[in-house]
Specification:
Strand content: 15-25%
Largest sheet: 10 strands, mixed
CATH superfamily of the largest domain: Aldolase class I
CATH class of the largest domain: Alpha Beta
Radius of gyration: 22 Å
Structural class: alpha/beta
Strand order of the largest sheet: 3-4-5-6-9-10-11-12-13-14
Order of helices and strands: EHHHEEEEEEEHEHEHEHHEHEHEH
Distance between the termini: 58 Å
Shape: elongated
Helix content: 25-40%
């Protein structure tokens, strides 16, 4: 079997080329052809020696993921469904803005975290993606968009690892992909413009800080452990205080001077004034003068299996105002691509349900329905207790 060269960052490609008896500078040339020019045919690579091109034909290939479907939203958002084999598929979404183009990339087929409000989590986990399968999403999207928009300029300026899966649970494949995105011989993206979103895998947050620090977004979604245990089950392993301590440590290495906290607004669950006050107290008690952070309030995108509803817009705005009045930078995410199910929390693809997760989560939902309904808490108990107790 030949090697898919999308599986390598530049250092890995240099090692591969050395194994062919070639000097390291050949890897740089090859890397540019693949990522900057989108070449997949070695005969196109005119500045490579013919002998190297022949070696590559016998030992390597450059393979994109087959595109199963493409949907273009009325707002210009584009969603692709990619085939990753064995009945599994992953989705990527391009979100155009006036000043940037953002690609949302998947890291796993399915997801094992099982967040209550995320449609991907309700489908269960199939497998990790390889580095090649992660990078292939960017490789395809960038070069498709250049043709689609009839430009030779770079189209994708930002990448967010916010598609299907928990990126930090696929760490060994994630980091080479990030390095290829950042490499000036590859996509040349700024560390500030590449974001890894995590539900809170604390040990891997610390590793990422050392290995490849990029912008970090944390899926928080609750101000106390009792509620977050239900909404984000990983919290039972890495509770909020432990997670925020990891965020403090990450800031010492981060390209941005703040952590982004994502907070999905769920009607009657986590959107009450008391929850906003608890978030303020939570942030203020971490760091020397409070944890440097930004909150991104996300309108929930309903799907039938969730049993949840979107918070009214007026309540979202009032929640945001409470945080802003406390000096916390807060934005409300603009929903994009919801007419093609490309909005936050909607990515699901056609992944097979290998774990009977829908049946299990339905049972859990019935048992937990009362747990996640809001009951006012006193400030002293906010950080530790389940809101139903």
């Amino acid at each position: 079997m030949t090697a898919n060269l999308l599986d390598f960052d530049l250092e890995g490609l240099a090692v591969f080329c050395e194994g062919l008896g070639e000097k390291r500078f050949r890897a740089t040339q090859l890397f540019r052809w693949i990522h900057q020019r989108g070449a997949s045919d070695f005969d196109q690579m005119s500045d490579l020696a013919k002998s190297l091109r022949e070696k590559l034909k016998n030992t390597a290939h450059i393979a994109a993921l087959p595109v199963l479907t493409q949907h273009i939203s009325a707002d210009g958002t584009i969603k692709w469904l990619f085939d990753v084999g064995d009945g599994n598929a992953v989705e990527s979404v391009f979100i155009p803005e006036d000043d940037r183009g953002t690609l949302c990339v998947s890291s796993q087929a399915g997801c094992a975290v099982g967040c209550r409000f995320c449609s991907t989590g309700h489908q269960g986990f199939s497998r990790n993606l390889s580095t090649a399968e992660i990078l292939a999403q960017l490789w395809f999207a960038e070069h498709f968009l250049r043709k689609h928009l009839n430009t030779e300029e770079r189209v994708i300026s930002n990448v967010v690892m916010m598609g299907m899966g928990e990126p930090l649970q696929n760490y060994s494949a994630l980091v080479p992909a990030l390095k290829a995105m950042l490499d000036d011989h590859g996509y040349g993206l700024s560390r500030r413009r590449v974001t890894v979103s995590t539900s809170g895998v604390v040990p891997m947050i610390d590793r990422l800080a050392q290995d490849c620090p990029v912008a970090l977004a944390v899926s928080l979604h609750a101000p106390n452990d009792g509620l977050r245990d239900v909404l984000v089950p990983l919290n039972r392993k890495y509770p909020i205080d432990e997670l925020l301590q990891a965020c403090e440590r990450y800031l010492a290495h981060a390209p941005r001077d703040f952590i982004t906290f994502e907070y999905c607004m769920l009607d009657g669950v986590n959107d009450q004034p008391e929850h906003a006050r608890q978030l303020i107290e939570l942030v203020q008690r971490h760091g020397h003068q409070g944890l440097r952070c930004k909150f991104n309030l996300i309108p929930f995108n309903p799907f039938p299996a969730s049993g949840l509803h979107r918070s009214p817009q007026a309540r979202v705005q009032e929640f945001a105002k409470t945080l802003l009045d406390a000096g916390i930078v807060t934005t409300v995410r603009k929903t994009r691509g919801d007419d093609i199910d490309a909005a936050c929390g909607q990515l699901a693809g056609d992944v097979r349900d290998r774990t009977r997760v829908q049946e299990r989560m339905s049972t859990q939902r019935q048992a937990q329905e009362q747990v996640i309904r809001f009951t006012p808490l006193s400030s002293s108990s906010a950080s530790a207790k389940d809101p139903s107790q």
